Amino acid sequence: MPTIRLDKPYDLDMSLYPSFTYPLYSIIDGWYVKIVGAYSGLRFKLYEPKILRFEGVSALSEDIVSELTGLWFDPYEYVSKLSSSRASRVWLLLEAYEGVGLAIDPYSRLWLFVSVALSRHTDFHLNTVRWVRMISESIGDPRYARIEQLSMISRSFHLAQLPLQIQFYIEKIEYLEDRIDPSILRVKLQEGPWIGPKTATSYLLFSRRDATYMASSDIHFQRISRRLGLIDWSISWNPYMCRRYLCVDCPIHGGCLHWLARRDYGLLAGWIQTVAYIQDKLLCRSRLCSRCRVRSICSET
Question: What CATH superfamily is the domain 109-207?
Fold first, then answer.
């Protein structure tokens, strides 16, 4: 059985839990089994904190497995590039979330787009995960999804809007993948129906290797960035401006959480936003302060 031996312990569960690739897997007897998208049938599992085993797809490279599991991204590589004040706070996050990577899937981009589109204004793990898997089981290829079929899954507005969003992605975005800079693609994505900066940013972060500087300014990142004193921001983002400007050219980016995260934390921004999601959803929301490992910099303790 192919094995990847790691230099340090890895947390596979917490690397996949906040990722928009999570709906593409099912957990069976402790194995993560790819059931949606490219490389369906692939299985991987941590046998020990430093040993990852995988099987089910022949001639699959370790590089691809590293991307899908999040192993490819090592946040420790980027801390030295931060200012001392920012680095001191990031070190606490690294200690609290040791072994958390960034699980992406550049090989199932349409499914990633579907996952992100279905995550708006709903509980991701309760609804989005279920919807994505049901689309895969009942329809197969999302390119052929029709409103009549999707309404059998749910009558939520998410499913009703999805066919037009998929059509836009196929006609206007798919051919541009890997041909233009992610920052430009972020603006172009927002030309689509019901696609705002959060959807565009989240899609890019988890569908490619070259967009880790993008941090979605969702409610979790807003709360944690303030609570831990990571970023001094005044606006999360402005959809009107995000549709008109690249971040670097935006006249109001000086107070924008998304831009400040990118400017101050560089290629670590996406990882910080990802662990902020874990922090807020699993600890802060339930007021589990006694279990929190970043209490020393929390403004609410």
Answer: Hypothetical protein; domain 2 (1.10.340.30)
125 CB-near residues (< 8 Å, 6+ apart): 22
3-state helix, strand, coil in the chain (%, to 5): 55, 10, 40
pLDDT digits (tens, 9 = 90+) for 6-18: 999 999 999 999 9
**Using the 8-state DSSP alphabet, how is residue 280 labeled?**
I
Position of tokens 């995960």? 129
Is 301's pLDDT higher than 90? no
Q: Is the dihedral of CA 231, 281, 108, 100 positive or negative?
A: positive
Q: What are residue 256's DSSP bridge partners?
A: 235
Place of tokens 């079929």: 149
Q: Which fold has domain 74-102+212-301?
A: Endonuclease Iii, domain 2 (1.10.1670)
User: Does residue 156 carry a pLDDT above 90?
Assistant: yes
pTM, entire model: 0.95
Per-residue pLDDT tens over the stretch 200-251: 999 999 999 999 999 999 999 999 999 999 999 999 999 999 999 999 999 9
- Give me the phi and psi of 127, to 5 degrees please: -110, -50
Contact assessment for residue 42 and residue 51, using Cβ atoms and an 8 Å cutoff: no
Output the 3-class SS for 101-156. CCCCCCCCHHHHHHHHHCCCCCCHHHHHHHHHHHHHHHCCCHHHCCHHHHCCCCCC
